[in-house]
Amino acid sequence: SLGRLLADSGGDYSDAEITVEGVPVPVHRCILASRSEVFAKVFSRENGGSEKEGKPRYCLSDLLPFGHVGYEAFVVFLGFVYTAKLKAFPVEVSSCVHNVCGHEACRPAIDFALELTCASSVFGMPELVSVLQRQLTDFVVKALADDVIPILVVAFHCQLSQLIDQCIERVAHSDLDSISLEKRLPDEVVEKIKILRRNSQHYCDPNMPIVDPLREKRIRRIHKALDSDDVELMKLLLTESDVTLDEANALHYAAAYCDPKVVTEVLGLGLADVNLRDSRGFTVLHIAVMRKEPSIIILLLSNGARASEPTLEGESAVSICRRLTRPKDYHTKTERGQEANKDRICIDVLERE
């Protein structure tokens, strides 16, 4: 079968290479072009790729208008292109290292399916998109609300209207705040979520606190100052209003979206509670762990953040981190002089606390 051509490690019959995450993948242009009009157009361009040993070489990232597709996902995608059969997902990149997770909807499982969806959509394989869309629909029901966001982003770019609607419905009835939605989603999607929330009985509850527009505006100005790495402006805004750093969740915001040096400066003011919980019950450390930035995690811990503090669902910081980390990233040994994987560093730092 054609699948044996991919299994040939020597790539003796290949006539091109597509580089993915620095790894050259031998391919056969006649097969890809016959299965995908997009590949046919790519290969028909003059000087479309660089030459190596007489073979055109293409970089996958240059062919993707959106999203990310890793090496393992691309290999599985090619397997479908060659054989019209979808292989089982590699466990090392489609599961997490949490010891009690069933991997039905953990973040690595979702991310791998999304990588395949991106490749299938971009290169025009609707039959595979359809299979993956059913799996993603199942994820929307089972996954944490935060993990529905990347599904919604990919669905938007792939124009999967049914999946978009399901994601919007789930997110609209979640406790995700407007600021995080605006940072992570396209404007038109955010607007649909806001409309659905306004029309929902849940968000029309008379017992819910009324949002003060002026106070909300002041908090957003503080966040914009942080986005600009302008802590001095943030200090000025604080003196001109009755909003405190904690009321603006400024440290949470900085840990989620800003450069580590901004987090350092905000902590240096001595005005923020490093163990403060936001409206969803997350501490600043929980937010930093979701970002998987070791320098911020170490900074928070050295300033009194408690690693043992659980979320409202009972998850510790290290538990969150393990649910976000793939076995490949956790177990891969690094060579001397090579930078260690950030996911592994985060877990090691937290487990030492």
TrEMBL record:
It is found in: Nucleus. ANK repeats lie at residues 280-312. PROSITE patterns: ANK_REP_REGION, ANK_REPEAT, BTB, ZF_C2HC_NPR. Pfam families: Ank_4, BTB, DUF3420, NPR1_like_C. Pathway: Protein modification; protein ubiquitination. Keywords: ANK repeat, Metal-binding, Nucleus, Plant defense, Repeat, Ubl conjugation pathway, Zinc, Zinc-finger. GO terms for biological process: defense response to bacterium; defense response to fungus; regulation of jasmonic acid mediated signaling pathway; regulation of salicylic acid mediated signaling pathway; systemic acquired resistance, salicylic acid mediated signaling pathway. GO terms for cellular component: nucleus. Residues 93-107 form the C2HC NPR-type domain. InterPro entries: Ankyrin_rpt, Ankyrin_rpt-contain_sf, BTB/POZ_dom, NPR, NPR1/NIM1-like_C, NPR_central_dom, SKP1/BTB/POZ_sf, Znf_C2HC_NPR-type. One of its GO terms (molecular function) is zinc ion binding. Residues 14-90 form the BTB domain. PANTHER family: REGULATORY PROTEIN NPR3. Belongs to the plant 'ANKYRIN-BTB/POZ' family. 'NPR1-like' subfamily. This is NPR1-like protein. It comes from Pyrus communis (Pear).
